[in-house]
Write a structure and sequence with these properties.
29% of the residues lie in helices and 19% in strands. Strands 1-2-3-4-5-6-7-8-9 form a nine-stranded antiparallel β-sheet. Helix 1 crosses helix 3 and helix 2 packs parallel to helix 4.
């Protein structure tokens, strides 16, 4: 799957200023907002995450493509706004007007250069990307274990397989 096809593969639909993927709501980001976040972070976001921010934005992916009738999901599964991810990576955990939060103890688990882009839930557990690694688009848990070798495949599996597939081995 290439970067260009992910948007089409997810069958994203733009309604006003909101991007819908099934029942999942996303909020687009401008190029300027992405660039400002990259300045805070200190280097560019990995290509697949950046492309997602450009074409889809940030939001929650909690409902699969074809949910069962009584489907209920209890985690956040938030793809963080670029500015929030950059702030968290730099240890900026509190700021005026914030709507996301990371526990200090959680921040201390990050390695330099880790980009927490996905909140699993409760502000204590995030998934990360390591932009300066040999696999900059790979997704890891906070312990450094590889979840997916591609951000795009990670997103695809959340939607087409199970929004909690990454927790199967926990």
């Amino acid at each position: 799957m290439t970067e260009i096809n992910l948007f089409e593969e997810l069958k994203a639909e733009t309604i006003g200023s909101t991007v819908m993927i099934g029942n999942n709501i996303f909020h687009p980001e401008t190029e300027e907002e992405i660039e400002n976040a990259e300045k805070v972070f200190g280097f560019p976001f990995p290509s697949q995450l950046r492309n997602f921010y450009q074409k889809i934005g940030y939001g929650s992916l909690t409902t699969p493509h074809n949910p069962p009738k009584d489907y209920d999901f209890c985690n956040a599964n938030d793809i963080l706004p670029p500015f929030v991810a950059a702030n968290f990576a730099k240890g900026i955990l509190l700021w005026e007007g914030q709507h996301c939060w990371m526990a200090e103890e959680t921040y201390e688990l990050l390695e330099p250069g880790d980009l927490p882009f996905f909140e699993v839930g409760d502000s204590n557990y995030f998934l990360i990307i390591k932009p300066e690694s040999y696999m900059p688009n790979a997704v890891y848990d906070m312990g450094g274990d590889l979840i997916e070798d591609s951000f795009e495949k990670f997103i695809w599996r959340l939607y087409y397989e199970d929004p909690s597939y990454y927790m199967k081995n926990w």
